[in-house]
């Protein structure tokens, strides 16, 4: 899978044949396509400019300008400050644990305890974390399910009950698909929470409670190598805290 298709993998199935044709053209001609104006890109693909703008919206973008920005930054490398892989991961995990506050853990956990049902939303590479967290909660009989498909995520406002909790898992906290539904749910006064790798992310500002690690971002040759092991550790900590709170309530 190429870098462009990987970046928008969750939205590709929703594209029409013409829109997919444009996106695959961009993938195959990235060096030139990222500098093309809208009209020329449309001419090269024998489509209208409206088709390309509509494609951008389906990809979760505001428009063609945002697409060009993403294309131009795909190749930007964020080289790790420490080239020793083991040392860097050691710093990420120790740094994350050192930043955590028990008050923040207890706050997020209390939302889970009070919720009638927990809905976990995760896309892309965070999808497996969503499944892992949901299965942890299901094994202790907490009503839970996880969502990763974009068309289902769009319907969440109709699926969430008044006393439910929606938990977003996102490494960057800047994924457009998640930001859009988080904003809608905030407007509907839905109880929400976030688990991210970025303390000052947009997502954290849209939810009722959050828990984050501030992990060094690493990108090389267009591939995102930022550690996601910290997200799993956060999930394990939250789950253990949930069990402890649940057991205390029974006493």
Describe this protein with a few key phrases.
251 residues, alpha/beta, globular, 7 strands, 12% strand
Q: Major sheet: order of its strands?
A: 2-1-3-4-5
> Which percent range describes the beta-strand content?
5-15%
Largest sheet: 5 strands, parallel
Overall 3D form:
globular
Structural class: alpha/beta
Write up this protein.
There is one protein chain. With 251 residues, this protein is an alpha/beta fold. It contains 14 helices and seven strands. The chain has helices spanning 3-7, 17-28, 30-33, 38-44, 49-58, 64-73, 85-99, 102-114, 127-138, 150-153, 156-159, 176-187, 202-206, 229-250, and strands at 118-122, 144-147, 165-170, 191-196, 209-212, 219-220, 223-224. The strands form two sheets. Strands 2-1-3-4-5 form a five-stranded parallel β-sheet, with helices on both faces. A two-stranded antiparallel sheet has the order 6-7. Helix 13 links the parallel strand 4 (191-196) and strand 5. The radius of gyration is 20 Å and the shape is globular.
